[in-house]
Predict the 3D structure of the following.
Amino acid sequence: MGAVVSGGGGANAQLANPYPNRVLAGDFEAGFKLGYMVKDLRHAFDLAAELGVESPLGRAAGARMDEAAERYGTEVDFGSVSRLSGW
């Protein structure tokens, strides 16, 4: 599991750079737009449904992203979802 989280640079790069340096600092200027994240999640949910795969955690994350998009718009960084928790 650790290799999955730390390997490849993708997820690890998000945890190591943008969150401490941007989200926790209150910088929500778009890097990867929330609208793109919402779109990508919808594609993932469509594929999961097509394959008959349940995705309750993904759906919960998607609902939170949708809530952030409604509140802050889709042009902000996807890290803006953290603002819903008071960051």
Remarks:
- Residues 1-7 have pLDDT under 50 and may be disordered.
- The CA atoms of residues 18 and 70 lie 22 Å apart.
- Residues 34-51 form the longest helix (18 residues).
